[in-house]
Amino acid sequence: MGNNHSSSSRVNRHNNGTMRLKNKKSKQQLMEREEHKESAKSRFHLPKNDQDIDRMQLQHFLFKHIWNDENYSSPIEQILKSGDCKVLDAGCGPGAWLLEMSTQHPLTRFFGVDIAAVFPSEIKPTNLNFHQCDINRGLPFKDNYFDFVRMSLMATSLKTDQWVNVIRELVRVLKPGGHLELIERELQVYNAGPHFTFMIKNIMSFKNSNDLNVYITNQIPLIFSSIPSLTGIQTDFRMVPIGPLGGQSGLIYGDLLDMYFTNKLGDILPKFMNITEREYLNLWDRCQSEFNIYATTVKLFRFWAQKVVVNNDDDEEDYNDNNIEEGVGNDDQLEN
Ligand SMILES: C[S@@+](CC[C@H](N)C(=O)[O-])C[C@H]1O[C@@H](n2cnc3c(N)ncnc32)[C@H](O)[C@@H]1O
Question: Which residues does ligand 1 sit against, CB inside 6 Å?
Answer without folding.
Answer: 45-47, 56, 60, 91-93, 114-116, 118, 134-136, 152-154, 156-157
